[in-house]
Amino acid sequence: MPGRSQHTIARLTALTATMALAVGLAACADVTPAAFSTPSGPNSAPAPTAPAAAVELLGTIEVRSVDLAFEPATLTVEASGRYRVKLVNDGALPHDITFDDGTRIVANPGDTAEGEVIIPEGGLGFICAIAGHKEAGMVGKVVISGDAAPVAAETAAQGHDDHGGPLNTAIEPDPNAPAPVRYDPVAPPVAAGTVHDIELVTEEKLMTVAPGIQQKVWTFGGTVPGPVIRVKIGDTVRIHLKNPAGSEVPHSVDFHSSMVAWNDEMTSIMPGEEKVYEWKAEYAGVWMYHCGTAPALHHIANGMYGMVIVEPEGGLPPVDREFALVQSEWYLGPQGEVSSLEKANAAAPAPDLVLFNGVANQYKDAPIEVGTGERVRVFVLNAGPSIDSAFHVVGTIFDTVIKEGVTLSPATPGHWGSQAVDLAPAQGAIVEMEFAEDGLYPIVTHAFNFVGRGALGLFQAGDGDPKN
Ligand SMILES: [Cu+2]
């Protein structure tokens, strides 16, 4: 599969800088770059220019280290014997390649280091021996192909699997999966008028939830999350829910912003059916809506949720920018299939991905741009289905938080601020902040084990560079 590895390398390389940041923040890795300044590691193998009596070099094994993975993680060589090893460190942290026989080659960020290793019959495993890096996924192996074809080791090294990449997913990425579609994080304005007829179609479709990973998701309106619905106190909302004839399963909707009987408006409709769910916006808040069809856990885990904003009496004061971020989890099923109910249903759920607005790391890959000094408001919802959020933006302080009707604001006596907002599944909040200088400000849940699973975005203030 030539081409696939390159594709993956490019994608994973793009993750490098911010994954390094995540690691630095999460693990506080106590690493002194000066300690790893040796260009070539303490390799006991003979030098490449050794006398003719030395064992012949069979080729070069080239491995790239990124934060925190090897690319590729599995290399195939034709035969056992002596190989040159080239470690190209594209990461922002020092890395090494330490083979199971003790051979170690160290490369600082941006450097390339070389050495040699003897690959025995049966192959040889390797890790990065820097504290924590193996556990974070820097594990690989060299295997012997047994294939007599005269392929250079460099060529053979291409195109093999690269498990252990930063996203930690159990699913093998598919290089042919379409690129993820970015969910527009800009919050919509309040809907005009006082009565809103909104068509909501339950669409079952394929969606790329992380680079190379497609799932057959269930949606409201074709996106995960569904559309943000923003109204004001006193408005009437008429949801025209439609389940297309081609759907495979029944669906329904449950608006937490409404007060209606569960066995009336929230009942399921079969493929080909439709119904009207009318409710009045009587309470302000950032609310969840979701499909409640049994098993509701599966319908939520497979993408059926969204945000309702009901503005308070008198409305919210104007700000420079408004965004809507929905945190949620993916429990991956096989490629192209629905998410795993079995995983989602675990008593201690371990999501494959945790993310903002449906796609892993999408706002890291394409940061949300704001102006330095602008007032930024974020409507945050934790759709779950099961993991809490500790919503935090690195480098700033929320001076305003409205959560479940309780308000912190600059007018609150004592000049208090907020560092993170705790949101259990189905809780929402409004937070406001400013960015003091041009630069990058990571958006995370401060449950940092999930930052490496897709819950990482960036606000880019100004040009993103604090140095100019
Ligand atoms: Cu559903």
Task: Describe the model.
There is one protein chain. With 468 residues, this protein is mainly beta. Among the domains are: 153 residues, Immunoglobulin-like, CATH 2.60.40; 117 residues, Cupredoxins -  blue copper proteins (Immunoglobulin-like, Sandwich), CATH 2.60.40.420. The strands form six sheets. The chain has a six-stranded mixed beta sheet, with no helix packed on it. The longest helix is centred in the N-terminal third of the chain and has 24 residues. The radius of gyration is 26 Å and the shape is globular. It starts with a helix and ends in a 7-residue tail after the last strand. It binds copper (II) ion. Copper (II) ion binds next to loops.
What's a concise summary of this model?
The protein has five helices and 28 strands. The chain starts with a helix and ends in a 7-residue tail after the last strand.
Per CATH, what is the topology of the domain at 4-156? Immunoglobulin-like
Biggest sheet overview: 6 strands, mixed
**SSE-based structural type:** mainly beta
- As residue ranges, the low-confidence spans are 1-53, 147-166
Give the amount of beta strand, in percent.
35-45%
* Sheet with the most strands: spatial strand order: 19-18-21-26-23-24
The radius of gyration over CA amounts to: 26 Å
Mean pLDDT: 86
Task: Tally the helices.
Answer: 5
- For the secondary structure, the number of strands is 28
**Percent helix:** under 10%
Q: What's the CATH first level of the domain at 4-156?
A: Mainly Beta
- Ligands bound here? copper (II) ion
